[in-house]
Amino acid sequence: MASNEEILAGLAEIVNEETGLAPEAVELDKSFTDDLDIDSISMMTIVVNAEEKFDVKIPDEEVKNLKTVGDAVSFIEGAQGK
Amino acid sequence: MARKVVITGLGATTPIGGDVPTLWKNALKGVSGTHTLTDEWVEKYALPVHFAAKASTPATDVLSRVEAKRMDPSTQFAVVAAREAWKDSGIEEVDHDRLAVAFATGIGGVWTLLDAWDTLREKGPRRVLPMTVPMLMPNGPAAAVSLDLGARAGAHTPVSACASGTEALHIALELIRSGKADVVMAGGAEAAIHPMPMASFAAMQALSKRNDSPETASRPYDISRDGFVMGEGAGALVLEAEEHALARGARIYGELAGTAVTADAYHITAPDPQGLGATRALKGALYDARALPEDVVHVNAHATSTPVGDKPEYTALKAALGDHLENVCVSATKSQMGHLLGASGAVESVLTALAVYHRLAPVTINLENQDPEIPLDVVTGTPRELPEGEIMALNNSFGFGGHNAVVAIRSTGPKVEMA
Predict the structure, then answer these.
(1) How many angstroms separate the CA of residue A70 from the nearest CA in chain B?
(2) Averaged in consecutive runs of 10 residues, what is the pLDDT profile of chain B (419 residues)?
(3) Among residues B389, B391, B339, which one has the least CA distance to residue B361?
(4) Which of these, B122, B216, B238, B309, has the minimum number of CB atoms within 10 Å of its CB?
(5) Partner A contacted by B69 (CB < 8 A)
(6) Chain A interface, best mutation among B64, B65, B66, B127, by max A CB count within 10 A
(7) CA atoms within 13 A on the CB side of B27
(8) Is B302 annotated as catalytic?
(9) Which distant-in-sequence residues (6+ apart) come within 8 Å of B118 by Cβ?
(10) CB contact B126 to A (< 8 Å)
């Protein structure tokens, strides 16, 4: 099971791969849309890559609730091992 | 009087040069862009053909990683070539509502399509990238170029196999003549050096099998030619209404004086042995340019190096130009860069524009024993000087499906020395 820090670092890597944003810019309080300028298509790619990386399921209806990076980290943390 | 259309910008990424200056230098020198493939899939699928002419500069070396991620390789090539052509045109300000795109492909996003199919089968639907469809669609290159330039007077995609790139110029000419646009980014892109198309073309016996000597495999007009060589890349031309170009003091390579597109309606892949459709396209382009056969000094031939294809083109040239054909020098540049399919007509039009601008016809390589049934004056060894004064050159492209496209490029001179 990945720790919060490891999940954040892993997400930052995925976001960087998809958008080119520096991993340091991916902070817990940042909004995917308003701060990181990530569109819905990139968001779906990030979600799918995160599912694979952390071996979790992120249902489509859950994605709209993942407004900030912190939301995603918390969700992934909770979903691990389920 | 129809509006005159001039060529003011050129761009290309090809197996013999990742930009126009390199392409032109090599086309005059005579080099081969064909090499043995080192991709693991050649062995994995036991492909009968082990070589191709890959782009000399991968598009991913030019584009940013994030840019490239959302584009099929064919679209990546298109964007690279179009950006070079746009910069070359020197256009700084343009009415974006009067700027159009006509960008062709023969096959489209075959890498994206088949990668996604593999992903679907191996990992399930959830792993198929959301951008898959916009990346594989054949209008992908035109759409990406339109987005990149902010071209809003329509983004068109002619798809006519190996005639596609030349047909794009035909569409561009019509757009400007009819007043629907003042400037058009025209071109073609292809990235199909993938095991599936390679296997299909090989099954058709269309590809050369000279595995032991790839550099000499593409040999148009040679008696021992045995098929074409797969190439990849893109070509792009900025076409502009003459008054628009003159108003901004643009450098003009030549006039896109006439174009024609015909269909054989003869056979899905075989060319009409009498070249009737090609003849009509040649005559049509001359008529469209208000030119006579005697005006033509140079032809960049389609000449793919297939046993069945090269001869009907000669027959058509003879029928269209008559005895004057003796005075016309012909370059078969696929000998150097292979067959870029839907991009070939665009790249070869770039070369044809440069030929009339610099008054030099590029060379044909690998012609050792010219087929006696094709008695053309082929440029070999060193580039051929083209005459002074007003001259015209033609570029021919023919595609599976019986598509024939010809463009006529005129230059009134003077000769422009190379930098």
Answers:
(1) 23
(2) 92 98 98 98 97 97 92 98 98 97 98 97 92 96 98 98 98 97 98 97 97 98 98 98 97 98 93 92 98 98 96 97 98 98 98 98 98 98 96 97 97 84
(3) B391
(4) B122
(5) yes
(6) B66
(7) 31
(8) yes
(9) none
(10) yes
Per DSSP, the residues of B375-402 read: --EE-BSSPEEPPSSSEEEEEEEEETTT
| Tokens 């051929």 -> residue | B384
Which of B65, B66, B127 lies at the smallest CB-CB distance from A48?
A: B127
Amino acid at B397: S
Chain B nearest-CA distance from A19, in A, is 6
The ipTM value here is 0.80
Per CB-CB distance under 8 Å, the chain A contacts of B130 are 41, 44-45
The closest alpha carbon to B300, from B332, B326, B328, B325, belongs to: B332
A18 neighbourhood in chain B, CB within 8 Å: 66, 69
Cβ–Cβ pairs < 8 A, chains A and B: 17
DSSP string for residues in B81-142: HHHHHHHHHT-----GGGEEEEEEESS-SHHHHHHHHHHHHHH-GGGS-TTHHHHHSTTHHH
Q: What is the pTM of this model?
A: 0.95
The count of other CB atoms within 10 Å of the CB of residue B196 is 15
Helix (H) or strand (E) holding B260: strand B254-263
B155 contacts B103 by C-beta, under 8 angstroms: yes
